[in-house]
């Protein structure tokens, strides 16, 4: 019939298939997630490995240790190596059961080795020469690596006076077996600075990079790692400058400090700015100023006063001498201040003060931060060092 509508067919809608039930993690996966959240203290993984074979198998696995370091980020600060005249003793700063005995990180030095840097769980010593020898030491694993400085930097015309050690990007969790060593040298007239870098991955030294500059007597001061660069504070006439070596570009640059800053090197330390760029701290009596580099109105980098910190809490600790800067903990972003009654750590972000030792003699502190793997003892250990390579 015209105009009559045909009946619609009723289509039954089929419900979409339900997703399969989520598979529950097995017991080992669940246990692994729990163990990953153990605090990154030195005693955590070694003690967990003693519970049973199953726990030891998990926490000793290299993949688990990589995940553990990635989960916690920055390694804990275990203590400091001190720049002594005859040795470089270790001063622990944690409480038991995480306190590493000084003897555990001691090493018999058969020559007058001088500590020149400490970073990423490695300590760098410069041995007397000629030829100048280098010792890269991992105190946790007790492994050593001996190097001979490149002849281009160790000759009658050049004299090595400083250096740095680090693990390449991606291996900074104190786990990579690869490392880099940078050496800084000057000529006899103190008119030229040169630098050369060794890579354990290739086993060779890079080409020497040099820069003309009129130096005063170089000071013994630890390097600071900022981004891709290593930085050193150097005296030039009546002021100080920052020598910066870019590890990626393999370039050297010198940056003068602003005019108002006093030239006393004991009151200066290179630190990264809050944005990760180049900066430094200047301490005058009990007033500290933090400076950073940033573009000015013309787009050129210039020094800008970022902020100030008052060290009023240290006044009672200084009876005859002004406080001095003796170290910088990169992982903790904290400066170390020497006073008459001891050494204090000042956290730059929170401005919290913490006393770390009673040492009253001026001594450069080299902070040692590292994750402690399973199966490694914390108690006193003498000897047992494994020499990986003699070059």
UniProtKB/TrEMBL annotation:
Any Pfam family matching the protein: Beta-prop_AT5G49610-like
Region span, Disordered: 1-26
InterPro entries: AT5G49610-like_b-prop, F-box-like_dom_sf, F-box_dom
Stretches assigned to coiled coil: none
SUPFAM superfamilies according to UniProt: F-box domain
Domain of life: Eukaryota
Span of domain F-box: 24-68
PANTHER family in the cross-refs: F-BOX DOMAIN-CONTAINING PROTEIN, OS07G0120400 PROTEIN
Name of the protein: F-box domain-containing protein
Lineage, highest ranks first: Eukaryota, Viridiplantae, Streptophyta, Embryophyta, Tracheophyta
């Amino acid at each position: 019939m015209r105009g009559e509508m045909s009946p619609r067919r009723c289509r039954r809608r089929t419900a979409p298939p339900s997703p399969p039930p989520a598979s529950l993690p097995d017991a080992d996966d669940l246990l692994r997630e729990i163990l990953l959240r153990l605090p990154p203290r030195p005693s955590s993984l070694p003690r967990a490995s003693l519970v049973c074979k199953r726990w030891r198998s998990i926490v000793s696995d290299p993949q688990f240790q990589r995940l553990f370091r990635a989960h916690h980020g920055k390694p804990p600060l275990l203590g400091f190596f001190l720049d002594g005249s005859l040795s470089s003793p270790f001063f622990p700063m944690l409480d038991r059961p995480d306190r590493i005995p000084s003897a555990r990180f001691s090493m018999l030095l058969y020559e007058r080795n001088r500590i020149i840097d400490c970073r990423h769980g490695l300590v760098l010593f410069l041995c007397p020469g000629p030829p100048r020898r280098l010792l890269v030491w991992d105190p946790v694993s007790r492994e050593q690596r001996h190097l001979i400085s490149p002849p281009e930097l160790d000759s009658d015309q050049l004299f090595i006076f400083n250096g740095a050690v680090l693990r390449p990007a991606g291996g900074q969790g104190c786990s990579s077996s690869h490392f880099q060593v940078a050496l800084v040298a000057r000529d006899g007239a103190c008119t030229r600075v040169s630098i050369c870098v060794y890579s354990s991955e290739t086993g060779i030294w890079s080409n020497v990079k040099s820069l003309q500059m009129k130096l005063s007597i170089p000071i013994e001061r630890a390097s600071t790692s900022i981004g891709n660069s290593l930085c050193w504070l150097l005296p030039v006439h009546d002021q100080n400058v920052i020598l910066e070596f870019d590890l990626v570009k393999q370039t050297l640059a010198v940056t003068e400090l602003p005019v108002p800053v006093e030239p006393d090197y004991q009151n200066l330390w290179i630190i990264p700015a809050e944005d990760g760029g180049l900066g430094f701290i200047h301490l005058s009596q009990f007033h500290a100023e933090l400076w950073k580099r940033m573009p000015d109105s013309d787009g050129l980098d210039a020094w800008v006063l970022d902020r100030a910190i008052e060290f009023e809490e240290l006044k009672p600790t200084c009876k005859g001498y002004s406080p001095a800067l003796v170290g910088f903990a990169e992982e903790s972003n904290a400066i170390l201040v020497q006073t008459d009654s001891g050494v204090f750590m000042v956290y730059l972000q929170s401005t919290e003060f913490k006393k770390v030792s009673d040492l009253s003699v001026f001594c450069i502190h080299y902070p040692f931060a590292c994750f402690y793997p399973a199966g490694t003892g914390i108690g006193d250990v003498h000897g047992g060092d494994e020499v990986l390579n003699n070059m």
